[in-house]
Description:
Elements: H1 9-31, H2 37-44, H3 53-76, H4 78-98, H5 102-130, H6 136-144, H7 146-164, H8 169-172, H9 174-188, H10 202-221, H11 229-249, H12 266-282, H13 285-296, H14 301-307, H15 309-329, H16 331-347, H17 358-384, H18 389-426, H19 432-450, H20 452-455
Helix pairs in contact: 1-5, 1-6, 1-7, 1-9, 3-4, 3-5, 3-10, 3-18, 4-5, 4-9, 5-6, 7-14, 7-15, 10-11, 10-18, 12-17, 12-18, 12-19, 13-19, 15-16, 15-17, 16-17, 16-19, 18-19
Pfam families: MFS_1
Transmembrane segments: 54-73, 82-100, 106-127, 136-154, 166-188, 200-219, 231-250, 262-282, 302-322, 334-352, 358-378, 398-418, 438-459
GO molecular function: transmembrane transporter activity
Amino acid sequence: MTSPATPPHHASRLLLWLVAIGFFMQTLDATIVNTALPAMAVSLGESPLRMQSVVISYALTMAMLIPASGWLADRFGTRRTFLGAIVLFVAGSLLCALAQNLPLLVAARVIQGLGGALLLPVGRLAVLRAFPGERFLPAMSFVTMPGLIGPLLGPPLGGWLAEAVSWHWIFLINVPVGLVGFFATLAVMPDSQGRSPDRFDLPGYLLLALGMVLVSLALDGVSELGMRRATVLVMLVAGFAALTTYWLRAPRQAQPLFPPRLFHVPTFSVGLLGNLFARLGSGSMPYLVPLLLQISLDYSPSQSGLMLIPVALAGIFTKRLITPLIHRLGYRRVLVVNTFLLGIAMASFAWISPEQPTWLRLVQLVIFGMANSAQFTAMNTVTLKDLDSTLASSGNSLLSMVMMLAMSMGVACAGAILDIFSDLFAATGHDAPRQAFQATFVVMGVMTTLSAAIFWQLAPGTARRPGDRHAGADL
């Protein structure tokens, strides 16, 4: 099937708003629960330090479904797939609000993640077909701007709702927005299917999904699930075996999920691995910082949410500075130095104490926000910059999958390390929770600094060119 004719100008603008709002809701729900986790734990009768599965389940589900998003859009059409994504997202949100215990809440977050995983990739495809050629980049820049606002509003909004009303409204607010989006999709989104979809590599997809789930569950099983060490070890080995099997069979497939040729591009290989390991540390911070502020410093949920606004504002400001810096110094220098700075900024949270002045705490958050934003922009653009047109789509999908996978694994790692140190310091009986947080921040910071060795493998002269792809790359 061929794509429909380009829609009228007013319909095109409405399409951009529709996709932008869908992306905003996706990014909002990735961060809005973090400041409400302690309140949710009290309501559900759980420990605040063992609520990471609420975050992990959403991010991991998104990582699992992203590889299938393009095929689903080609098979069922962009409008029907986008409608299905909204239905799943709204249904999952409603079930989250109705959940009476942690397992039901996690299951509902999985359903919500299934919808959230499709909102941006399918929306991006709809925009690509409605705004071809040179019109695509400005259109995607408009669509991805709400992706910067979602993390800005998520923490304070989640904290305020948990404190002023109840944590259930964190999810209920998605229902009216989703209903409006459903009818708007029927009205303005073209039902384009493009070319006939290729044969879907279902065995490869199952291997990849199984590997991601087993590795993440093994990391989470150390703390929240209370698994025995032998079980965790078996799950880790089985997960890595499934991932290895996928990459060994991919070169023999006519249409693999991700072409092995991607890894013939040096900047892509380095950037993808750097993304995975650098995000293990930085991806855990939106989970760790609100917990630290509420558990160790007695902040309210809304206060802890407001404390995270400087992180998002500093990140938005830094995006204007990082491109000229890369042009001048090159990717290798910027990424190696900034990865060290990011790790040090993370480790510095170990020195947060009740006696620390508020202004110094804000300075720490601003420095972390700037380093984190620079890291994301630089390592994402270097990953995609040298891909040709035949590899750009699959490379962008693989990068998106790795970003969400690293987020889920980072939270799982942080939760496991925090649990280990909590048990270790519990015997001292003196401020054990704060000591556990201090040690966890140091470990996660060290992990991040070590990933600088990956970016050292970039060629010394690697720099950004005017034609580099960057639509949505800094998210």
